[in-house]
Amino acid sequence: MIVCGASVAFLLGTEVTWRTLALTGLFPCIALLLDLCFVPESPRWLAKVGQEKEFQVALQKFRGKDADVSCEAAEIEDYIETLQNLPKASMLDLFQRKYLHPMIVGVGLMVFQQFGGINGIGFYVSETFVSAGISSGKIGTIAYACIQVSATGTFVGCISTGTSFFLKAMACFSSGSQL
């Protein structure tokens, strides 16, 4: 989905100004913000804060009105009780000596990741194609967006095909079933 969204933005960017393109990015945000009004509370969160009646109603709503949720409700309540009996951790616990190496590696990877990647290519794609001799940066941007989407589709297709053959070889499926 990210690749498709980026490709649509590249394609729109060839036809509209950057201000219009920035404003079009508001539409998905507004739609998601409005949709938040219709998302019910999490049953686990309701159980954690002690709202038992709302917890049962939310769980029943998620599973359907005819579903028996008593077993799952008991499991969630047991989990919440176990969770509350665990020792509490704080942010300062991350800076103990035993966590020093994993923290340095994790933060270092996040920092150095910002120096590379596809964003450096995507931001300068039109200038790159013009420097390479293409007459218009728009043509290069459109080509880049199409290749980006097709490469993602090819990757997903290859992974699906490979998984299908692997599962077939492992006799997970009968010869007539499809993945």
What is this structure's SSE topology?
Elements: H1 2-13, H2 18-24, H3 26-35, H4 43-48, H5 52-63, H6 70-85, H7 100-113, H8 118-123, H9 125-131, H10 137-169
Commentary on this structure:
There is one protein chain. With 179 residues, the protein is mostly helical. The chain contains 10 helices and no strands. The protein has helices at 2-13, 18-24, 26-35, 43-48, 52-63, 70-85, 100-113, 118-123, 125-131, 137-169. The longest helix is centred in the C-terminal third of the chain and has 33 residues, at 137-169. It is extended, with a radius of gyration of 25 Å. 8% of the residues are buried.
List keywords for this structure.
179 residues; mainly alpha; 69% helix
Structural class given helices, strands, pairing?
A: mainly alpha
Radius of gyration: 25 Å
Total DSSP E strands: 0
Ends: how far apart? 22 Å
- What's the rounded overall pLDDT mean? 82
Indicate the proportion of strand residues.
under 5%
| pLDDT < 50 stretches | none
Q: What are the secondary-structure elements, in order, as H or E?
A: HHHHHHHHHH
> DSSP helix count?
10
The residue fraction in helices comes out at 55-70%
Mind summarizing the main beta sheet? Answer: none
Shape: extended
